[in-house]
Amino acid sequence: MSVPPPPRGADEKYCSNCGSIINARAEICPNCGVRQLPAPGIIGPSTPGGRNRVAAALFALLLGGVGIHKFYLGRVAQGIIYLLFFWTFIPAIVGFVEGIIYLTMSDQEFEKKYG
To answer: Which domain holds residue 74?
Structure first.
């Protein structure tokens, strides 16, 4: 019969290796010495593929004319099309609009579409 873990406070978390209660901001467990993963949202939300919604939006807003955001999101064919037509400034306009769309998306929607 397993014993339930003791309750933890708001500023505490469980060690990912040994399960002991440690400070929520601890980088290394004082009991077992294993480095802890950062708390969700510390670095910024990203998809399992490592793509960040805000980074994609900034790429689209600043470098959308050459399709950098498409390469970042793994849409290489679309990125090449942006590169081929960057001289028309149409990709820059579309990239700007896409950047705004990325900023208005929720993290869950972004992960669902680009994750």
So the answer is: 53-114
42 pLDDT more than 60? no
Q: Using CA atoms, how far apart are residues 62 and 41, in angstroms rounded to an integer?
A: 24
Q: Taking a C-beta distance cutoff of 8 angstroms, is the pair 75, 59 a contact?
A: no
> How many structural domains compose the chain?
2
Q: Is the pLDDT of residue 93 over 60?
A: yes
Confidence (pTM):
0.59
Burial class (CB in 10 A: 0-12, 13-18, 19+), 13: middle
Q: Between the CA atoms of 39, 45, 48 and 51, what dihedral angle is there, to the nearest 10 degrees?
A: -140
